[in-house]
TrEMBL record:
Organism expressing this protein natively: Filibacter tadaridae
Region listing for Disordered, in residue ranges: 25-59
Stated name of the protein: Lipoprotein
Signal peptide: 1-22
Source organism superkingdom: Bacteria
Keywords: Signal
Compositionally biased residues, Polar residues: 34-43
Keyword Signal: yes
Biased amino acid composition, Acidic residues: 44-55
Regions that span the bilayer: none
Upper classification of the organism: Bacteria, Bacillati, Bacillota, Bacilli, Bacillales
Keyword Transmembrane in record: no
Length: 209
């Protein structure tokens, strides 16, 4: 029951704050589409060779983690991502997808992408912290600074991340820039954070289609 209340607080805070930023709400009742459009299975090499499939290469340090990941395109947003087996990408509404753990739908990562414009990054970081605060019944988020646990790779810059603890798990927010795109990830994981590493590693492969 507590997890459901937390998710309701997060959803309410996100809807209010994003509507102030001009989010299109005309399609908010749109049926959820399940499963992104999958590409071919990507057998990621574990040596130093680059992946040559016409897309940005998987970050060198993550090739073992992302072995057998599948290149998948979002149905509603202009990006592709490498997905590990047992994870499913669904579109909630325009501008917002969820990456679920199969069989554990309460554990997921929300993905939002926006075009890079003046002020957008700072707004998303501020909004992210408000969402985390709402999810934890008012507790202040703790900033994450360990670079090894944050997204990295070609063209990724200006990464900001924070985390809060709740009674049922952890909620982590990450905002980063990649080229002309800004990506915001919101991770809902268990107290042991079994999936946080995988979420981050998949998240850092997000690139424009």
């Amino acid at each position: 029951m507590k997890r459901k209340l937390n998710l309701l607080y997060v959803a309410a805070a996100t809807a209010i704050l994003l509507s102030a930023c001009g989010t299109d709400t005309e399609n908010e009742n749109k049926d959820v589409k399940t499963n992104g459009t999958a590409g071919t299975t990507q057998e990621v090499e574990t040596d130093t060779e680059s992946v040559d499939d016409g897309t940005d290469p998987v970050p060198e340090s993550q090739k073992v983690v992302l072995k057998d990941a599948i290149l998948t395109e979002s149905d509603e947003q202009d990006y592709s991502i490498y997905l590990l087996p047992t994870y499913t990408l669904t579109s909630e509404e325009p501008g917002r997808d969820s990456l679920y753990v199969e069989g554990e739908e309460e554990i997921f990562m929300r993905i939002e992408t926006m075009k890079k414009e003046d002020g957008t990054f700072d707004y998303l970081v501020e909004n992210m912290n408000e969402i985390l605060k709402a999810a934890s019944d008012g507790n202040a988020p703790v900033e994450l600074t360990d670079e090894e646990k944050l997204p990295s790779g070609e063209d990724i810059s200006t990464v900001k991340a924070s985390k809060v603890q709740t009674e049922t798990g952890t909620v982590t927010g990450i905002v980063f820039e990649r080229g002309d795109m800004i990506v915001r990830l919101t991770l809902f994981d268990s107290p042991k954070e079994e999936h946080t590493e995988n979420f981050v590693r998949m998240g850092e492969t997000i690139t424009t289609k």
